Amino acid sequence: MTDASEDASDIEKLYEFGERLNEAKDKSQNVKDYEGIIAATRGSVKAKQLAAQLIPRFFKFFPNLSSQAVYAHIDLCEDQELGVRVQAIRGLPLFCKDTPEYVSKIVDILAQLLTAEENVERDAVHKALMSLLRQDVKASLTALFIKHIQSVDETDENLREKVLSFIRDKVFPLKAELLKPQEEMERHITDLIKKSLHDVTGAEFKMFMDFLKSLSIFGEKAPPERIQELIEIIEGQADLDAQFNVSDGDHIDRLLSCLYMALPFFMRGASNSKFMNYVNKHIIPVFEKLPEERKLELLKNLAESSPYTSPQDSRQILPSVVQLLKKYMPWRKTGEETNFTYVECLLYTFHHLAHKAPNATNSLCGYKIVTGQPSDRLGEDFSEQYKDFTERLSNIEELSRATMKKLTQGMAEHNKAMAAAKSDEAKDKIKTQKQNATTGLRTCNNILAMTQLHSKSPLFIGDRRVNLSWKEPVKPSLPSTATASGAKRTTSAANGSGNTVSKRARGGGSSGAHNQLVNRALEGLSYGGRSGGGQRGRGRGWGGRGRGRGYR
Known about the structure:
Blueprint: H1 2-23, H2 31-39, H3 45-57, H4 66-77, H5 82-91, H6 103-112, H7 119-135, H8 137-150, H9 157-171, H10 175-178, H11 182-194, H12 202-214, H13 224-237, H14 249-267, H15 273-283, H16 292-305, H17 311-328, H18 340-356, H19 360-365, H20 383-420, H21 424-450, H22 478-484, H23 491-494, H24 499-504, H25 511-521
């Protein structure tokens, strides 16, 4: 009974303090009343809840008690009672209503409360933070980034993830509403993000890059220097100034993922020079030492980047590409499996680089392309190089046609199996096999479209007439791909049907061996996209943060 009466007395006193402060013309004179409100934070649950409302309401009138008031209120945010905590959290933004200099401090406090386990409490934190972001977006964002994202060593990992999640889920979707004035605030958040990238996971980096490219300052009308700025951010994350160590899986993952992320910006006119030269100097020489799945990723990235390579860089990179192409395009049948996707990637890269620097192929492949420059080297004899290269082309053409015949026959078998399949599991398996075969046919068709290089002065493909097999098919499909290549080949030859295939494809005893070759060679090819099948795909998250802690 005594406790209840004391509680009621405390509440009554609080109401009196509040009423006197409300009525006072010069509230700063009522120091004792405000001190009484602060003292109530050590009282009963109801007293604490009422104090949580009154402390921020009269805060601005008592600058000499500001620290005392804030710390008392923070204690309420950590109270054992959920109701007290929620009331105190809701009151935090009110500290800044008339004293905006407190925004950064209150944002910092609220950010630390994002780890709250109760939904109602966490929801109160989110609403309080959004209130402050709307009041002063620049100070609020700065506090969130500097205190909890950029200060890696001082930030609890769980807290950092909560802050990042809040920014991703609550702030980024409302960028049009929050980032005003638009250009100034977009530039400000860009600078904050750039300073936060020294220690991020792959998923975090992708999140930031997706957000940056959604900003109007990097939009469709952005000048070239803005797009180059994004490329430089990606280049920095890829560690292109670091010495490459082939045993550093983290760096390989980061490099390949960043190169893939940079592709849309190459398309928009940004330079790929730094990436291409790094790959040429550091990666291609140790290509065979790369993990198998990374080899395919690298070659796909190289192929997709090649159309945007400058003539000067093309001339520098071509020798390495030709050397690698010869390795995977043997000049005679060796009995070893042929990786058709590797050949497709390398032929595509070769065409686009050679299109930019055609006479560089004179010494590499024995061609006689005349540009009138000393680099034509027309007085030198490169006939052996020509013979070697064209024999390799003929061999890969024969292998491709034979493989296409096998795949086409397999498609008919898949159709029969699909009709007979009973379970969904069986149907899904057959469907995957058909998709794999379709991708394989596209790969071999592309190879045939790109091996028309037997002339002494061939025309190199420098446009998009060849659609890479892992990309979405374009329409019209296979026939136009073959004819558009500028090749003197009939449609039937290009798609693997007709007399050419029946003459080339070997029967008899080699059939079983060739079936095995087809299956194994197309094993990694058939997933098509960047993240399908059994391979690790793009956007997969680069492990723990830190240069030495795994990037995937």
